[in-house]
Amino acid sequence: MTRLSLGKHGKAMEFLQPTTLAEAIEAKAAHPGAVPIAGGTDVMVEINFDMRRPGALLDLTRVPELTCWEQASGDGVVRLGAGVTYARLIAELGGLLPGLAMAARTVGSPQIRNRGTIGGNLGAASPAGDCHPVLLAAGAAVQAASVRGTRLIPVAEFFLAPKRNALHSDELITSVLVPRARGPQQFAKIGTRNAMVIAVCAFALELRPARVGSGDEGSVGTGIGSAGPTPLRAPAAEEFLAGVLADAGLWESAGPLPDPVLRRFAELAAAAARPIDDVRGTAAYRRHALAVLARRTLAWAWDSYRAGRGASRCG
Amino acid sequence: MSILGTRVLRTEDPRFLTAGGVYTADVALPGACHVQFVRSAVAHARIRAVDVSAALQAPGVIAAFTGADLGGLPLPSPVSRRISAEMAQPLLARDVVRYVGEPLAVVVTDAAYQGEDAADLVDVDHQMLPAVIDPEQAAAGASGLLFPGAGSNIAATFGDAAGLRPDLFDGCDVVVSRTIVNQRVAPAPMEARAAAATWDPGGRLTAWIPNQGAQDTRAALAAMLGIDPAQVRVITPDVGGAFGAKFGADPEHALVCWVARRLGRPARWAETRAENLVAMTHGRAQRQTVTIGGSRDGTVAAYRLEILQDAGAYPRFGAVLPAATILMAPGPYAFGRVEAVARSVVTNTTPVGAYRGAGRPEATAAVERAIDLFAAEIVMDPAEVRRKNLLPRFTEPHTTAFGAVYDSGDYPAALAKVLDAAGYSGLRDEQARRRAAGGAVQLGIGLSCYVEITGPGVEAGGPSENATVEIHPDGSATILTGTSPHGQGHATVWAMLASEELGIPLGEITMKWGDTDLVPEGGGTGGSRSLQQGGAAVQQAARELVSLARQRAARQLEASPADLVFDAGRSAFAVAGDPDISVPLTALAASERLAVRTVFRAPGPTFPFGAHLAVVEVDTETGKAVLRRVVTVDDAGTVINPTLAEGQRHGGIAQGAAQAFLEEFSYDADGNPLTTTFADYAFVSATEMPSFELADMATPTRYNPLGAKGIGEAATIGATPAVQNAIVDALAHLGVRHVDMPASPQRIWEALQAASVAGRAQQPQT
Ligand SMILES: Cc1cc2nc3c(=O)[nH]c(=O)nc-3n(C[C@H](O)[C@H](O)[C@H](O)COP(=O)(O)OP(=O)(O)OC[C@H]3O[C@@H](n4cnc5c(N)ncnc54)[C@H](O)[C@@H]3O)c2cc1C
Fold first, then answer.
1. pLDDT confidence of B629, banded at 50, 70, 90?
2. Is residue A174 part of a domain?
3. Less crowded by CB within 10 Å, the N or C end of chain A?
4. Domain shared by A81 and A130, yes or no
């Protein structure tokens, strides 16, 4: 591991550069105050604006274990290394994890997508992080490692408050376990600009169709971004929709979704939000826009489900 | 074949694209210390004490100064005689701070980063005063005065508000009135502000400052420092954009010079983006009440514009913007009766200055919205209402009710051309189909017609500019110009003009500007004046140079000057009928310095005009507007380089459109700026813009031999109302008559909500 001391006048900043995961974890245990840095697209902004002055930075970009992804055998889960960038999510994972690739396409600019990582998004734990709604909808889990061992944290339990996550001071995110898409996924976001913009609100949806004969009645996943102190799920909306789809035999028939179902789903999704007024938008607008996004993503997702089932367009 | 009118590529670009520019921050200044400004974190407060003692102990700190150290420096004089001297901004706040970002101390360090740290250690003891943010409240004065000594927050008034005619709208079938906001925006040039300064042992200052006119900057610096302008040399390095906000000099520039003198050591400063967004002057910031009246056949009989200008905390150029807005209030229209009045008020916000168009976009935005409000009220196609009210084509100057003298114009032709280029009736058909289908995404078509004023003179006299052209014995030539390019491409075009006259290839012509020792006089670049005055001066200088050379050639060839012909292809004079007896310009330059300095004087400003058409799609559920097409006619007279003119139009359209639906600099009620980074300030990006469709039209002016008018601001002026009108038009069938700028998704949704509530309220009770 390389160690550099940067700065003068006795106010040096340690710069730790582990080259293996084991070294990284040990370094984090030895320097619990060290701030991990991956793409740096959040960390460097904070340092530049003097919002934080860490005594040490822990550079994770030389840890090979963090930059790979793999499809774990059998269980249909994709293990994404924390250091996988948005550019790679788009280029390599559009098939397995379409929702995440969709979200990645909306992030920042090409430069930001080349540097920014999924682990950094989780580490920053901004309510506006674009990966978060998708990971919530997919029921992903964060794998954290420390010298004490590893643990899996369901994404729904990972976000504690604005910019606070469930990691302990000696832990690093090593990977994110994301079940591969079992049905249509969608992600939509509203911002004031098309690029380089923090979402005013965002919504992610996953449909997990029933598997005939398996006893699996199908389910629905949701995620809300930028409309609460943390990214949120909309459990009532999920249950409502899953119930309607199962009870009306819609998974089986692939019939059209009645308009009242779309609207009720949208209402319930919006009701789950806990937005505030800020410079980007009022709470009222966020709630409204979220309902629109929820209805649209559901309509798109259901259309693709039906298309996949060979249902006729006019159904 | 003439090189004029051709698409010569910018000769500036190879250097920018390979070696890179040399901006003020790149200027080598060995031994320079760094100046860091300590800026007010609160909008309005009495300063009880500024304690720099802790900062002085910080690493690398050489010195720290507060307003108390600046005794002896004069207070800057007001931008206009009508403004109270009480409202002058001291270089560093003394007793009171009046906006977030106002400089109140400086810390000087060896390295720039040390200054950032040390500035945090400066302790300011405040006694908070109520912040005056809303311009209406500022005008009323009820929430407090920024300058009690001035007796009022009103910095200036324009026109006679008490004398407004009560009968202005008599006889009108329809009168519509509405208050609309022309919001505050940030110029945000790519290069923020900077300065580097050094004094020679004789007490003469050399200052490198990105600016729009070195001579103006020299005058402003000298005034702030209380020294003779002859003691100041300003050098202009490459400048990364300005948009009006780099004219003259700001207190920060003068302070860097002052620090260098005080410490006897070169000093420099380069602003951060965050600093720039709160501390460079802002633009626009008008609240306008438009009233328009006429008959149901579409004729407008009367128009009134009442302006409330937010000047920010200290009256700068922004305080007098209404003068330009009033001058251009009726735009290209032949309204029977027009009135316009304005008040400028001070508020606890960043001072407002010039910003691309400076007063004219505000006039166009007001009248173009008014026309659409009127058209909606009488249910007539807005194109038709415009057609009915535009001034007819004129070739002799036309004097308006406000005394503007429009040099030449054909406004109906511009409108007809843009409608044709856009396929207007087809667009209306598509709009009708979409409305009938009732989908979420609706189509809006917006128009604007404009005329603007470019190249106005200064108070001291009519518009003029100087140029020097010199030919060297090696066949190269040098041009000195009083204009100050910062992205416009003068080096290319001035060389084209000289080459056309002299036959010297472009690559052999060097243009110099922006060094006050080299070019002591000059009007700089602003108000779209450069080509029509500075370019015309270059042409005139080159022609005078040919005359001078003719005299000398005649002497050398022992011929009569009248018997010589100038062969621009060979850059040589030859005896008529005997081309073998000739003398090239280079030979003449070798025997005696061959240079001419001349001043071109224009009879008056010129008035470019045009028409813009914008097509938007508005998602009526999310409220998001997407700009689909922008079709424009921007008639700036004769075009010398179409590529560069189009570049000005492209940038102008993007900047104007950005105001319509993206950008706004905003404050909370306590005067805290809310849009202090580009994450929150929705600065336009390429992804919001379609490809622009530019139609050509050229109505030459007779005010200069080139026939050229200004193009630098025209498209900004036309684009804003066209896009805003398009957004409102997309929602018109849903009862929306107006959406304030920027028409963000939220604003559009709120307008739709309000219209549907109003619509329900109007339905008959059952
Ligand atoms: C111009 C710009 C535009 C942006 N646009 C978007 C956008 O559209 N959508 C969006 O969601 N975000 C956006 N961001 C924010 C940022 O790019 C993302 O959050 C990105 O995912 C951060 O990843 P990174 O690798 O750069 O993180 P870093 O900055 O390196 O780290 C971010 C945080 O995570 C921690 N961290 C990083 N890796 C680990 C790890 N392995 N274990 C534990 N903690 C870790 C760091 O300590 C830090 O607290 C933008 C940022 C900028 C500057």
1. very high
2. yes
3. C
4. yes
Indicate whether A315 pLDDT > 60.
Answer: no
- What residues does B610 pair with on adjacent strands? B450, B634
Please report whether residue A314 resides in a domain. no
> Is residue B766 scored above 70 in pLDDT?
no
Q: How many domains does chain A have?
A: 3
**Residue A267, min C-alpha distance to chain B (Å):** 14
Chain B residues close to A200, C-beta within 8 Å: 745-746
Query: For B518-542, how does the pLDDT look when each residue is reduced to its tens digit (9 = 90+)?
Result: 999 999 999 999 999 999 999 999 9
B407: DSSP letter: -
**How far is B141 from B607, CA to CA, in rounded Å?**
38
SS3 at position B236: coil
Record the tokens describing residue B22, joined without a space: 């040399």
Q: Which residues contact A19 (CB under 8 A, 6 or more apart)?
A: A1, A2, A62, A63, A64
Query: Count of CB contacts below 8 A, A vs B?
Result: 56
A116 lines ligand 1 (CB under 6 A): yes
Which helix (H) or strand (E) covers residue B645, if one does?
helix B642-661
Neighbour-count burial for B644-671, b at 16+ CB within 10 Å, e otherwise: bbbbbbbbbbbbbbbbbbbbbbebeeeb
Sign for the CA dihedral angle at B83, B311, B655, B446 comes to negative
**Complete edge-to-edge strand list for the sheet that includes strand B103-109:** B61-66, B103-109, B33-39, B267-270, B194-199, B205-208, B232-235
Residue B763 has pLDDT above 70, yes or no: no
Residues 6+ apart with CB under 8 A from A126: A42, A162, A163
Confirm or reject: Cβ of A107 under 6 Å from ligand 1. Answer: yes
Q: Is A313 on the interface with B (CB under 8 A)?
A: no
In angstroms, how far is CA B582 from the centroid of its own chain? Answer: 48
Mean pLDDT over B403-429 rounds to: 97
Q: Is the CB of A82 under 6 A from ligand 1?
A: yes
SS (H, E, C) A219-247: EEEEEEECCCCCCECCHHHHHHHHHHHHH
DSSP state of B436: H
Mean pLDDT of B118-129: 96
User: Full-prediction pTM beyond 0.90?
Assistant: yes
Residues in CB range of A26: below 8 A, 6 or more apart: A18, A147
User: What is the DSSP code (8-state) at residue B668?
Assistant: -
Of A11, A194, A279, the CB nearest to B687: A194
Q: Which domains are assigned to chain B? A: 1-27+193-270 (3.30.365.10), 31-129 (3.90.1170.50), 131-181+282-391 (3.30.365.10), 406-453+606-766 (3.30.365.10), 457-601 (3.30.365.10)
pLDDT for B71 equals 86
Ligand 1 centre from A105 Cα, in Å?
A: 15
Q: Are residues A19 and A1 in contact, defined by beta-carbon separation less than 8 angstroms? A: yes
**What residue type is assigned to position B231 of the chain?**
Q
d(CA B420, CA B552): 55
**Cα–Cα distance, B571 to B584 (Å, whole number):** 6
B628 touches chain A (CB under 8 A): no
**Cβ contacts of residue B486 below 8 Å, gap of 6+?**
B210, B212, B239, B240, B241, B242, B246, B525
ipTM above 0.85, yes or no: yes
Q: Is residue A107 part of a domain?
A: yes
- Report CA(A30)–ligand 1 centroid distance (Å): 24
- Cβ–Cβ of A293/B744 closer than 8 Å? no
Q: At B471, list the tokens.
A: 């030919």
Domain of A16 in residue numbering reads as 2-59
A119 lines ligand 1 (CB under 6 A): yes
Nearest chain B alpha carbon to A281: B746
In chain A, the residue whose alpha carbon lies closest to the alpha carbon of B60 is: A9
Smallest Cα distance from A227 to chain B, Å: 14
Co-location of A71 and A153 in the same domain: yes
